[in-house]
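Dock zinc ion; give full complex structure.
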Amino acid sequence: MRCPKCAGERDKVIDSRTVRGGDAIRRRRICLKCGHRFTTYESVAVPALQVLKRDQRREDFDPDKLKRSIAYAVAKRPVPPQQVEAIAEDIRREVEEERGTEDLVPSTVIGQKVLKRLETLDEVAYLRYASIYRRFRDAAQFFSEIENLIGRQ
Ligand SMILES: [Zn+2]
C-alpha cells in the first residue's frame, strides 16, 4: 500500500482487527521508508447495483440521475437544492441498505421512495413525479390522485 505521506511502496501491518460488525478489516500500517502510520480498510467488493426498468431493461443505478429526476419534479417550487440533495442521498442509502445480496432493484421501488418523500414535501412536485413515474393511464387517474391529496387535508 503506497504511503500517503512519502509515496513509499513498502509497509508493514502493525495491527489488524475486524470492524463494522465483521464486514470489514481495519489495518494499521507503518511505512518502512518514513515511519508514517496510516490505516486501510478491506471489505468484500459489492457488485454495482442495477435498476430493473418497466420494460425489463437493466441499467446501473445512478444516484445523479435520481437527483436530477427529483430536481426536475421540484423545479420552480420552494424547495432548496440542498433538500433535493438530501432526499436523493437518503434514498440512495436506503436502497443500498435494503438490497441485501441483491444486485437488482426495480425502478418502481425507487419511484415509490421518491413519491413518499415528495408527498409530504410539496404537492405539485409530488404530482409531477407521480405523473411521470406512475405513468397515469389517463386524465381520470391523474385527477383521482389529486382528489386523494385534497381528501387527505
Ligand atoms: Zn512513508
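Observed: Residues 3, 5-6, 8, 31, 33-34, 36 surround zinc ion (CB under 6 Å).
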